[in-house]
Every structure is written in C-alpha cells, then in structure tokens.
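Lab meeting, action items carried over

1. Structure of the two-component assembly. Owner: GW. Status: complete.
Input record:
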Amino acid sequence: MLAGQEEAGLEVLVAAQEPAAPSELGWLGLVGRFIRRKPLGAFGIGVVLVLSLAAGAAPWLSRYDAEETFRVANPAYAPGSFQPQEKLYARAGPSLRHWFGTDQFGRDNYARVVWGARRSLGVALGALLFAIIFGTTIGIVSGYYRGWLDMLLQRLMDSIQAFPAMFILLLLVALTESNLVTLSMGLGFVALASVQRIIRSAVLTAREEPHVEAARAIGCGPVRLMAVHILPNVATPIIVVFSIGLGSIILAEAALAFLGLAPIEPPSWGMMLDEGRAYMTNQPSTMLAGGLAITLAVLGFNLAGDALRDFLDPRIRLQ
Amino acid sequence: MQQYIVRRVLLNVVVIFLVITAIFIGLRATPGDFAVRQVASQVTDVHSMDEATALVRHDLGLDRPILEQYGDFVGDFFRGDLGESFATKRPVMDELKDRLAPSIELAILEILIAVVVAVPVGILSAVRQDTWVDYVLRFFAIFWLGVPSFFVGILLLYFLARWAHWSPPITDYQDFFENPWMNLQAMILPAVAGGLAVGAIIMRFLRSQLLEVLRQDYVRTAWSKGLRERAVIMRHALKNALIPVLTVVGLLLATVVSGNVVLETLFNLPGLGLYVVNAIRQDDYPVVQGVVLLVATSLVFVNLLVDVAYAWVDPRIRYG
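Predicted assembly:
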C-alpha cells in the first residue's frame, strides 16, 4: 500500500518539476531528471521503496526464517568425547550463505533485517494511523467550534507535549502489557499533539472559505460541514504529517526495542543493535546490520518526507 | 511582562495538574499489578493468595476510597513528596536527588558541544551558500539527523576500542566535583553522541535564520558602508539570527532529555534515564511516576524561562 502511494507521489513530483514538456522525456527521462534535480529526495524515495518492498515481501525475500538457528560441525568433536557433534553457527561474519552474518543464536542477520522492516514499518504505520485519525478529529472539532472546547482541548494537548516523548512511552510501557498494538498506540499518542495542532491551524483558515460559508448558508449541520466541506481542505497537511512523521516514529520504536522495553517478536532492528553490541569487538556484523538498518530507514523516510512536503506545501513545518 | 509571567505560571500549574491526574488514572486503570506480582513471588499456597494480595494492597493504601487517594496523591506532590519506591522503600525524592547531577551534567555538555559545533558550521554554510562547502556541511547535518544517537555512541565505543584501544572507565561513576578527570572520561562519549544529533538541528536552523537576516536592508547598509565581512556577519547579522536559535535550544531540551534515557542506559550513567528504565523493569510505579512528574514539571518551567529570556534578549518582543 505504502509502495503504491510513494510511487504515485514520485510521478506527481516529477511532473511538477517540469511542467513544460514532460511528454518528450518519457517516464525514465523524468525519473532521471528528478534524480539530478533532487538527489537527496530521490535517494529517500528509493530507500522507502526498498524498505516497503522488504516489508511487503519479507517471506519471499528473507531467504531464511527469522527464528531459524543454524548449526555447523563442531571441530572439537571426536567419537567418545563429551563434545556435541554440532554447535551453533553463531556470531559469524558476512558470507554467501549469510549475507549479513549471524547473531549469537546462529540466526541469519539478513533475514532478521528483512523481517525487521515489516515490524518497523508496520508499527510506524499503525502509530501514524492512530495519530492521524484522532489528531484529525480533535483538530477539526477544536478548530471548527473554537471557544471553550478549543481552549480545553488545546490545554490538554499542551500537557501531553509538556512531557518528553520518551517518558510518555516509558510510562505507557510500564503501565500496560506490552504488545505491538499497545506499542503502536503509545507511539501514536505521543505524535497526537503535534499532528492535531497542524490540522487545527489548517482548519482555522478552511472554515472561513466561501464554499464552507455557502454550505452553512444552505443549512448543512456541523457534522456534515466538518466531514464533507472542511476535511478535504486539510488533506494536504494530513499527507505531509504522514510522510514526515514516519521517520521519527521508526526511531522511537527502535529506541524502545534497544532498551529492551518492546516485544521481542517479530525481530526488531533496535534489538539487534542491543544484542550485537555485546560481542561487537569480536564480530560487529549484528550490531552494524541493526544500526545501519535504523539509520537508513530514518534517513530515507525523512528525506522522502521533506521532498514530498516541499512539493505539496512548503509552508508547513514540523517542530 | 509581569502579568504575562503570572498568567503562564498559572497555566503551567493547570498543565501539571492535568499531568498528575492523567498519571493517577493511568495507575489506577491497571491496579494491583505490583501487589499480585509480589504476592505471587512469595506465597505458594493458592488459597491464601487473595488474602495476601488484599494485605499488600492495604499496605500500599490502594484499598482506600478513590477520591481520598487522589487528594493525597496531589497534596503530596505539591508538598514535594513523591511517595516511596516499592523496591527500596526509600522516598523517591531522595533517590531522585542523587540521580539528578549526572543527567543535568550530560544535558549541559551535550548542548555545549552542539552549540560549539553548530554555530561556526551554520555560519560557514550560510555565508558560503550554494557552494560545495555548503553542500558538504548540509549533507552531514541531514545525515546526523537520521543516525540515532545511540548508534553513534556504539560506533564510537567500537572504533575507539578497536583502533585506539580505549574505552570509558567501567569503575563506579565518579562525581564531577570529586574526580573531574574520571567523570569526564565517562561523560565524553554520550555527550558527543547526543551533542552532534542536537547540533545538526541547531545548525540547520541557524543557517536558515542567517540567510534570512543576510537579505535584510540593514545588512546591505553595513556592506555598503564598506565594513569587512567579519564585522557584517558577526556584529550585525549573527546577533539577530541567534535570537530564534535560542528558543530552539530551549525547545530541544525535551529532545535532549528523551535521548538521554537511551544514552544513560547505554553508557551506564546513574542518571534519571537509567533509573527510570530500571524501575520499569521492576514494575516500580512510584519511581516511574515520580521521575515523569519531575521531568514534566521542570520542563514546563524551563520553557517559561526560555520565553522570558527571549523577550529580554530581543527588546522588540513584548508579551501582553
């Protein structure tokens, strides 16, 4: 789903770059032009596409199961000795069989990175959906009614933002049974305050537009006004928030997994980074695989989000 | 101005009040977790289980009327009493005091490193806009925004151990005023890792602010008076460009505090972050809520201080 969206976004972006003669260049030419004009944005979109592909097709791309433990013949084994015949193929460096090496349990790092993409993107997508559904509702209601309701809601959101995000997450982890759903909701809750603020400010201008006034004049009720006439006006900020928020949510989820406060299955990049650092002086492959995956994902989503924002609405700035 | 400060303080009290209420409800929505866990670890007889759980709940005061509990909770907080740790039975406030110094020191060092790196880099990038120097510096800034500070910390540990055969002291943490050399050895890596991440944000912001200021009339006047580049940039442009940066540094404090939870855990610094992470692993609710409340309260007032400082630095700003 994400891949499709980003692909559509790419085409639109490219079309906007050169409105003069897009037909002469053809599709490939347009992509080439976009890469030359906005190399960082193109890099980001490329990373997003690769990660979305990895997340979507993890069972076919991962080569091995994420939990499968590999064994090799034990060189210390001799008939009659107490040594086992096989031992774990653990903490190995990159090889043709195991592209990113193996971890301390002999599991394939490449497979875990690929499955980790599904987890990271899945959690981040869930979190943003939560934030956007509630953030849009709060933002529209708050911006539409204004008055005491607006005041109350905004102070409530201020009090959420008074917390450092990590401490809200820690509190939620401490208070709830941690699973991927509560984790997504927690991450979404942290993002809620800034999401609704952006939506609200877009609503404040949208509600004064002539077509909204006209709709009110012909007798539309408040619910219809908000859902049918104002909501489409805030679609752009919603898309921008969506694309920019993903990077920081992936980072927050990785940090929680790194601290050992997130569910341990399915595999996560933050957990690989944490486990890998125990033996990194001997074999850094696990640590690097996890850390570079997080870095690439955050960087890719940030750059792609920036490019999308510049195209859709350069005025919107997130904190 | 005074009126503004009074209004903000009152608003902050309301915000803190909401925070306390949210935590209270959150805690009561998942009651008895600790009681059940403690009982389960000590009582083997299934029949006495309920009885024992009730006893522990009574000890913790969880069986009293809910409003009474709420009143005590709020009253205690405003009197500076955050309850006792389940695990150590010591007052949370006392334990927090010991943990405060390393966290504050780390935050100060990070912001120091961030500013020392970001200000010259930001100026250079803005003054040489759209040259290769600018591109390289901006690329690094964007790159640092994507790299998690804890990964940078681990890479620093890895490469220093590998190439310089150096790693931070694993002995007990030493206070800065007792043993500054040992203290800084333990602090330097997390401070660099966190500082560079914050520095990247400050650098990008300073650059865009400076570019805006450099296009203003009074800067053109300064140029046409024949002033040297140094005087135009440093004396005329930079002063105005730095003011918004000041607010950003204030706002970034929340980010720094968040990031330090992970960095303290990674580098085993006995600050608030490590304390709260350990408390979560033990289900020690009073400690978790104490730390969260303390951090939220101090940040709310630090933000107010930053806003006031903003008006003080820039006389054009008036709050009404």
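2. GW to write a short summary for the group page. Key points so far: Chain B has a mean pLDDT of 83. Chain B is about 80% helix and 0% strand.
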